[in-house]
Amino acid sequence: MPDALPAPLDDVDRRILQELTRDGRLSVTAVAENVHISRAHAYSRIARLTSDGVLTRFTALVDPIKAGLRSSAYVTLKVSQHSWRELREQLRAIPEVHHIALVGGDFDVILLVRAVDNVDLRRVIFDQLQSMPGVLDTQTFLVFEDMDTR
Hints:
- This protein is an alpha+beta fold.
- The chain has five helices and four strands, in the order αααβαββαβ.
- The protein has two domains: 11-51, Arc Repressor Mutant, subunit A, CATH 1.10.10; 71-142, 2-Layer Sandwich (Alpha-Beta Plaits).
């Protein structure tokens, strides 16, 4: 929720988040040991971070190349002024779109698109994205190398 106030976080919360960002599969016991707090304290902190919406989900990071997604691009969109809400839902329905951000600047939206190959990438960009009502212009930036910084 964009209008929500940030949850107050202390150093223990930040260390818990750092541990879970590094490895979302850590047990509560392992988090407690790594952060140097009791298991009960770690459990209650994680529960609070989840209920406050700071932790939104636990997920796996997938190597796109090993998963067969050999072609990736950042695609920027310029969109008509009042089309964002409808467009957002259409973009979320495209399986090849892995990240969506509404931004300010020379374009309005940036997407991370991952496809099995350049033919599939071209299909997504030309047949799906460019044909959406409300999309005025696109620009594509091919990804040559990709690395996770976490």
